[in-house]
Amino acid sequence: MTQKDQQQLGKTLWDIADQLRGAMNADDFRDYMLSFLFLRYLSFNYEEAAKKELGKDYPVTKSNLAKEYGVSTPLQLWYESNLGEIEEFEKQMRRKVHYVIEPHHLWSNITEMARTQNGELLVTLEAGFRYIENESFESTFQGLFSEINLNSEKLGKTPTERNKKLCTIIQKIAKGIADFSTDADTLGDAYEYLIGQFAAGSGKKAGEFYTPQQISTILSEIVTMDSQDPTMGKKKKFDKVLDFACGSGSLLLNVRKRIKDNSGSVGKIYGQEKNITTYNLARMNMLLHGMKDSEFEIFHGDTLENHWSILNEMNPAKKVEFDAIVANPPFSLRWEPNDTMAEDFRFKSYGLAPKSAADFAFLLHGFHFLGKEGVMAIILPHGVLFRGGAEERIRTKLLKDNQIDTVIGLPSNLFYSTGIPVCILVLKKCKKQDDVLFINASEYYKSGKRQNTLEKEHIDRIVETYQFRQDRERYSRRVSMEEIAKNGYNLNISRYVSTSVDEIQIDLKEVNKKLIAINESIKTNTDKHNDFLKELGLPPI
Questions:
Q1: In DSSP terms, which residues pair with 300 in a beta bridge?
Q2: 477 has which bridge partners?
Q3: Considering Cα of 335, then 340, then 346, then 351, what sign does the dihedral take?
Q4: What are the angstrom distances between the C-alpha of 344 and each of 169, 276, 306?
Q5: CA-wise closest residue to 481 among 426, 425, 430, 434
Q6: Rounded Cα distance, 220 and 375, in Å
Q7: What is the pTM of this model?
Q8: Residues 202, 207: Cα–Cα separation, whole Å
Q9: For every residue of 109-141, which 3-state class applies, written as one string?
């Protein structure tokens, strides 16, 4: 499927959502829409795998299954005819596709129930969601659909009204995607498109979970390059990748895609998210992009409190380290570090970030787990580059230890959550150069009514400049540590790379000469004019 078709599928689904949500706000309807897409993907994938597994024993699809056999799907018919073989079949399916869906929970049965206005649709959906959460996968996905209330009065005041509303929504979705390929990449991209559209409609709330794709691309391009020599291009293999504030998981998926597009592989990706809704979005997003449950781990918990056991190992020898770390944490979040945090292994060597802004707390959390040959790219507000106090002390130590590799300034109004300009900090523990690359990309963007965007040319320019560590007039410059030290370890980008055009130098002596000449000319011409006026008997001027 072409990119144009993928975008069209996303737009089609968004139009459906916009038509159907009625009085329901976008955030609420998002959970229904995305969950049904998720069920559609799992079902299609499962039925295709079942066809391969059963081979010639898979019942021939007939248009009159319901009328002739009282079932909606071929797999329902096989289950009813092979009761003694179900356990072994499901065992094989768990081994091959890593999950099981009961036939009556499949999307094809759900859509048939919607088409016939079956009064049991709501009950069947509820049971299906609970089964997927607790029984489908070897690893539990408990609470995956916890944000979806099928008995909400927003769907209707009575069970009958709610059932009818669900029938309408499901029929529309089924019709909308019928003409499109719905493989993992396609449906995954449509899912991402919808997340972006819902984010746009949610304003500042969207900052909790959504990183615009163009910024996600920059970060993923940077961290997938060779850490010591980016000119060598992309790495072929990552063992572990982390996003400790993963939102819907788009950054992690972008990193994985870049590696796979280069014929490489990623062992496992790890994400952490505090918000329960977006935590569930991330888990669905992983599966929707064709990942097996054994290929990722998403943890629900507070990053700063470090509740995740795998990241809370006190023994340095057992510390988990990551080949690449990406993150877009909440900007300047207020936090309340307790008395023991000063001795926390993440912060001990640097000091605590101030209560007013946890930006450096997030940065240090991630940096602690960065592997010796790894790269970390994190999105932060510009204040981290120049604010004083505790932040200055942390910034100074990172610079003196030669761990800040690149500072990239982005244009304003790229995010749904804020209009302020932000920066990307690239950090390494294997850095060779005794300088910092500054990229001032603040004036390179496409202006929009609601949001500014980065075009491919703008993204390529940033990535290329980073890769080849280029000096470009009024755009980028390698700055020595000596110069940075003279500036008090202030990293304000405009100090080092100004986008303003140099003013033309003015020769004041030459200007003065011209003014004198002009005044003399005015006097000479005035005298001549007065002579003419005198001859005419008129008063002089």
A1: 273
A2: 438
A3: positive
A4: 50, 26, 10
A5: 434
A6: 10
A7: 0.85
A8: 9
A9: HHHHHHHCCCCCHHHHHHHHHHHHHHHHECCCC
Backbone angles phi, psi at 462, to 5 degrees: -65, -50
Amino acid occupying residue 417: S
Angle between helices 250-261 and 276-288 (to 10 degrees): 20
Q: Could you read off the pLDDT of 74-108 as tens digits, one per residue?
A: 999 999 999 999 999 999 999 999 999 999 999 99
Phi-psi region of 235 (alpha: psi -120 to 50; beta: other; left: phi over 0): beta
Structure-token pair, residue 280: 């569930």
Question: Position of tokens 């790890």?
Answer: 270
Hey, is 346 helix, strand or coil? coil
Site of tokens 């990293």? 491
Residue 265 neighbours by CB distance under 10 Å: 12
Residue 114 to residue 117: CA distance in whole angstroms? 5
Q: Are strands 322-327 and 476-480 parallel, antiparallel or unpaired?
A: unpaired
Number of H helices, E strands in the chain: 18, 9
Query: Token pair for residue 341?
Result: 């945090």
Q: b/e string for 293-312 if b means 16 or more Cβ within 10 A?
A: beebbbbbeebbebebeebe
How far is the C-alpha of 427 from the C-alpha of 404, rounded, in Å? 5
In this structure, the strands spanning 265-273 and 296-300 are parallel
CATH fold of 209-496 reads Rossmann fold (3.40.50)
Question: What is each CA distance from 35 to 49, 132, 196, in whole angstroms?
Answer: 21, 12, 16
- Distance, in Å, from the CA atom of 267 to the CA atom of 271, rounded to the nearest integer, reads 14
Domains of the chain by residue range: 3-203, 209-496, 508-541
Report the mean per-residue pLDDT for the chain: 89
Among candidates 14, 7, 24, which has minimal Cα distance to 166? 24
The topology under which CATH files domain 3-203 is Ferritin (1.20.1260)
User: Strands 370-381, 322-327: parallel, antiparallel or unpaired by DSSP?
Assistant: parallel
Distance CA 43, CA 22 (A): 28
30 exposure class (CB count in 10 Å sphere: 0-12, 13-18, 19+): buried
Contacts (Cβ under 8 Å, ≥6 apart) of 298 = 246, 249, 270, 271, 272, 273, 279, 282, 283, 286
Low-confidence stretches of the chain (pLDDT beneath 70): 1-7, 21-24, 26-27, 61-67, 181-185, 199-209, 417, 500-504
Q: How far apart are alpha carbons 121 and 201 in whole angstroms?
A: 30
Both structure tokens of 535 = 């001859």
Please give the single-letter amino acid code of residue 175: K
Q: How many CA atoms lie within 13 A of 433 on its CB side?
A: 18
Structure tokens at 72: 């909606």
